[in-house]
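tmp note - Exodeoxyribonuclease III
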Amino acid sequence: MNVNGLRAASRKGYLKWLATSRADVVCLQEVRAEEHQLPDDVRVPEGWHAVYAPADTPGRAGVAVLTRRAPEAVRVGFGAPEFAKAGRYLEVDLPGVTIGSLYLPTGEAGTPKQEMKERFMAAFFAYLAELRGKAAADGREALVCGDWNIAHREADIKNWRGNRDKSGFLPEERAWLGRVLAPEDGGWTDVVRALHPDREGPYSWWTYRGRAFDNDTGWRIDMLMATRGLAGRATEAFVERAASHDERWSDHAPVTAAFTGW
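out:
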C-alpha cells in the first residue's frame, strides 16, 4: 500500500483499515517520515512488528514492512550504492519466504528524473535475479510488493492512448516489466494478473484531479510479484477500493493477496 504520507494517512483512516485487516504482512510505500516523527500507535501498531527504511531526503519516499511475527532478518536496499539511502526498498525474512517492499521511482519522460528511474530499473532487475536465485537455492519463496510505477499492459491503465508518452507507460518501461515477468528471463509472476487474466484493472491508483476515482479512470501500478512456487499457492487477489472518494485515505488503494499454506 502506497500511503502517500503515513502521518496524513493515519489521520484519514489508515489505522482503522489496519485494525480490521486480516493480513499477516503489510508493505508500505511513500511513508515520508522517519520513525521518531511517528506517534507510537502509528509507528508500531498494536499486534505488529514494524521496520522502516526512510529516505535520506526528508519528506520523500520511505518504505516499511509490518509483520504479525518478528522477522528473522531485515535488509535495507538492494546493493546499489546510488539508492542505498533512497528509502525505496526494504525486505524481511519470515519462515520460508522473503518479502520486499518496493517504491520504484516515478520518473518524468525526457528529464533527469527519468534517467534516474532507468538506472534504478537496471540495478533492480539484476537484484531480482539474485533474489530469485538465492530463494531457490535456499528452498524459499520470495514476494516483492509495492508501487512499481509502471502499468504493464493496456488493460492496466484506463486512458492508455493518452498516456503513451508519459512516464509509467513508456514502451521501454513496459518492456522492462515484461522482462521481469518473462519465464525465460526474470521469472516473476504478477499475482493479481495471474488470477485475473482477462479483466481491465483492477486499478490501484487514481489521481485526485477531476473525477478520476468516481469514474474509475485509474492505473494498476501497485503489484505483488512472486516467485513461481508462491504464485501457484495464491488463492485470491484484490484491490481494497474505497466505497467513495470521501473515504479514501491515499490516492492509492491497498492490493491484497492470500496464499495457501502460510
